[in-house]
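Appendix B: complex inputs.
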Amino acid sequence: MSFDVARVRKDFPIFEREVNGHPLVYLDSANTSQKPVQVLDVMRAHQERHNGNVSRSVHTLGTESTEMYEGARARIASFIGAGSPDEVIFTKNSTEAINLVAHSAGQFLALKEGDEIVISEMEHHSNLVPWQLLCERTGATLRWFGITDEGRLDESQLDELVNERTKLVSVAHMSNVLGTINDPARLVERARQVGALVMLDASQSVPHFAVDVRALGVDFIAFTGHKMLGPTGIGVLWGRFGLLSEMPPFLAGGSMIETVTMGKTTYAPPPARFEAGTPPITEAIGLGAAVDYLTGIGMDEIHRHEQEITAYALEQLAAVPGVRIYGPASPVSRGGTVSFGVDGVHPHDVGQVLDALGVEVRVGHHCARPVCQRFSVPAMTRASFYLYTTTEEIDALARGLDQVRKVFG
Amino acid sequence: MSFDVARVRKDFPIFEREVNGHPLVYLDSANTSQKPVQVLDVMRAHQERHNGNVSRSVHTLGTESTEMYEGARARIASFIGAGSPDEVIFTKNSTEAINLVAHSAGQFLALKEGDEIVISEMEHHSNLVPWQLLCERTGATLRWFGITDEGRLDESQLDELVNERTKLVSVAHMSNVLGTINDPARLVERARQVGALVMLDASQSVPHFAVDVRALGVDFIAFTGHKMLGPTGIGVLWGRFGLLSEMPPFLAGGSMIETVTMGKTTYAPPPARFEAGTPPITEAIGLGAAVDYLTGIGMDEIHRHEQEITAYALEQLAAVPGVRIYGPASPVSRGGTVSFGVDGVHPHDVGQVLDALGVEVRVGHHCARPVCQRFSVPAMTRASFYLYTTTEEIDALARGLDQVRKVFG
Amino acid sequence: MLDGLYQEIILDHYKHPHGRGLREQFDGEAHHVNPTCGDEITVRVNADMSDISYDGLGCSISQASASVLHELLEGKDSATIAEVHRAFVELMQSRGAVEPDEDVLGDGIAFAGVAKFPARVKCALLPWMAFKDAAARAGVEVGASPEVKA
Amino acid sequence: MLDGLYQEIILDHYKHPHGRGLREQFDGEAHHVNPTCGDEITVRVNADMSDISYDGLGCSISQASASVLHELLEGKDSATIAEVHRAFVELMQSRGAVEPDEDVLGDGIAFAGVAKFPARVKCALLPWMAFKDAAARAGVEVGASPEVKA
Ligand SMILES: Cc1ncc(COP(=O)(O)O)c(C=O)c1O
Ligand SMILES: Cc1ncc(COP(=O)(O)O)c(C=O)c1O
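Resulting structure:
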């Protein structure tokens, strides 16, 4: 069956509501996505009928809960092409997943002065500040790829930036501001030459197109449930098993241990080693249901739809006088996230006028302040799309921008 | 209105289900509690009608979500008597909260060789392993209070254990195995004399009786949503504001920053400083609803009910031949968590036979292996109660133990 | 709906700001940033409040608010400054429950509508908080305004 | 329901274990722990499998399983050991979908019911995994059994 956006929208209860007297036009999915009833129902069923703590009891509720939780892990593993479910570690969000690597792989790599970590100027703060702190703790140096005027990763200095001092490279698979999709192939090849690890911040890619970790050839990826139709409170770190099994724990506590005495503790193998305490059980199960939903529709279908919407949006926005788009101007190698400025109007004001019309966009630095600085603006307005976005919603955005220009004209 | 357990039970959908052909008898609330429909409905309403990311947008959905999230923080703050909502930090569970302090306060205290951290032998692994790791990182020494034969904290060596080398003391407010409730008064007094910080692991206390952080006089407490009628994926660190505002960040990323450049980041004041990335929004709102529910019934009512159930359970269990109770034998200064052994039968087998009768208890070391070692057993069976527990359920447990003795007689 | 927020007075101050531009002579300076939106403001004051200068980047609300602040506070005695400052902060935190007094707040009453938009309250307050810090550094206490969260 | 789990054969082996107690002469030893319940087992073997000794603390399932292991594997040739080991692990991971072969598994067929209780499968496998490690340390490869999660 072919992709039918009207049918998809029926699964999302929130589209029944109005905002400020207008039908909701939700163009902020890069910030957080809406959730289909299928995901909410699975979570509710877990909470109402099968709630028990995982991996700790022989009782029926605990066993059911454990099977649902581990089942979600297995389905998420196959969704991203992981070698085994044991490579999937549940965290609370992408941010925790990246911090986990910054601490645990940082310790594993025994970083010291002279070593280098490489990121890029287009990173979300969550893939930037953890590395700054790691460098502070260890004396290593942080370096970064720049951004071209077109909003692409500037790989022209690749061989100099990634060199024999480089221990780890971590970049966004897709920029949450510019929409740019980065192909990590050359970067991975270079990192392999110098023996550096590669992490991809896949927070914006895994929700929107098929990602296969083995095909990518990287060592770690991080992504987050609430951006892919799942609940808040759940994220994923995927890592190569061989690497994970060498890494020391990060958070410590119940369930990550093998045996404990007051004097000494030994640790469970991954993934348990990295899941201290009671995990976000219902949330992991919810993310499993989200993956089922996405798979049911088909990631390729979703990507195709978003490409169409993006092409349409780029066109419509380019036609609004005074609008400047930051990032790739064509839908090639870019996703459905479009940031722009309106001449003479501050993004806060753009967002406010749009909200009055029911159009929900994000304004600000989008947790990626260096990107704004790169383009010499304090803030941007961003419209971002998903499988439920329609061309009518893009039209509403364009009409809203006319209104913005009227108010601040 | 007086406390009516039958009315309370109607709020919990899970009690409608059967386990292995018997009505569910859920005696594992110290592991994780069940959830009332009032909590589930608030979460669902958030997800279906108000879902947006917090503190990042001017749009209506984001504003509504932020108000629900911050409203939950404010209600949780007053539930524990915090000076201000800014003292309440949302984490994913107790374990993360304790790890946060072990990293951030550990760094703030500039721990080094010769310094000492004091815990106790009755700690959950989540209040033990993070301190072991902190000592490994810094060279500080880990010391601990013992447990008396009655299952009480052995404070006889208090003045020697907590001394001028002590930088931080962290103990359980209530033991998750023995049920012992520790009064931290003497410990806090001694800690103040020597200038040490005091943390309470309140994972088992905040759910069950009124806790007032200012009356306790401690510096930090940690607790976890899923043990107090809330969802999984949410926990709380409470800390004195003056202290929190001096502490460096732990997890880093979006939302915890003041301003970011590639070279240098400055951090937001608490609580934002400690809440990197998208927080467990729906889960925090769910925990707020759980606190409303608990407050509506009254923590003193709940405690009184649990005391009655505990007295009854201690009596009934003492009457079963071959049963040995670990921990205080009377309900004085102990909560509704009773661990025991059945002569000649391994806890796994006890739990399995009980489960066949629909009685859900936990077996194993309960993430507190040193407690088992203290009483020279590899594992224990534990029955734990909450506001919805009835005397009939205790009777079902006692009958179940007769069956255990029959199978393994 | 928007009319409550974008009063003509606010748009006027935004398009034609009063007293904008930093001057070199000052006794106290403060630079404040709104971490969510990246807005910034720098405020400079003389100890006798004869000069209040500012510059910044920001939305219509924060820029208009700075302009109104300049108009209301420059050259006033410290009692008046404390009163106006308190009244403005109170208005912004009222969620629309306080009726503003035009005698005290002048053009500032146009911000009554902003109080109903929690996400924008911090925009309106940004210059006022920076002013308070700058004044403190010049030795003038503007009074204990309630804590404002970013 | 319980009958499927606690077969008479299992309870018999639990109450009257075969070959329990560690012996001092051995070529390989392994100590395994089940981290969730704290159960432990130590297994010792000779390189020629003429002696398999063990001791441990644990539930009826893990203890009976050790006793059955001893009965089935001690003194067998390495082909038989590999076959029986594989068959037992397969049975335990089958969730009840595999019909056990009494000729191969002897009393081990009583564990078919355990396979339906995911939380107990690791109890039954604990001695078998420890045995495999002990054998490896004595230079005997028991074959690539599927990975077992704790
Ligand atoms: C005393 C105590 N501390 C800490 C924890 C850890 O809580 P969580 O698993 O939610 O992090 C628990 C429960 O598991 C507990 O009982
Ligand atoms: C590219 C990118 N990385 C990381 C994150 C952080 O995700 P989370 O806030 O769920 O931790 C986000 C979204 O906020 C993002 O867009």
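The pocket of pyridoxal-5'-phosphate (ligand 2) is lined by residues A 93-95, 124, 126-127, 172, 176, 201, 203-204, 224, 235, 367; B 254, 277-278 (CB under 6 Å).
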